[in-house]
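A quick aside before the break. I want you to see a complete sequence-to-structure record at least once, exactly as it would be stored in a machine-readable document. Don't worry about memorizing anything.
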Amino acid sequence: MDNAERKTPLNDLMQSTMAKIHEMVDTNTIVGEPITTPDGVTLIPISKVSFGFGSGGGDYGKTTQNFGGGSGAGVKIDPVAFLIIKDGVTRVLPVAIPPVSTVDRVIDMVPDLMDKVENYLDKKKEKEPF
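That is the input. The structure line, written in tokens, reads:
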């Protein structure tokens, strides 16, 4: 039997720890459940999830009864933004620190600028005769 196929207490320890991490970090943690307000606005929370995991152990002596080991994990969840859906229009509301540099401000303004250009072009098309 290969070492990779051998069933050891360390394998059990690592598998149970990873199963618990998997329970904590799923897609519903990153993209939350939609929240609908009475006025028809839908909010979808978006988060950033970071996690770390470490495990180790060893067999002492010739039997597996003398096993010593441990594992640990850490999970960090940071809110990033909300998707706001109202009347078929989707907007992103960041929860981050306000932009500090000019480049950050320009990047934040691009979605609104694109919406304004699109609305302008749509109005211009409506006015032009066929």
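Two observations worth writing down. The chain has two domains: 9-96, 98-130. The first strand starts at residue 35 and ends at 36. We'll return to this after the break.
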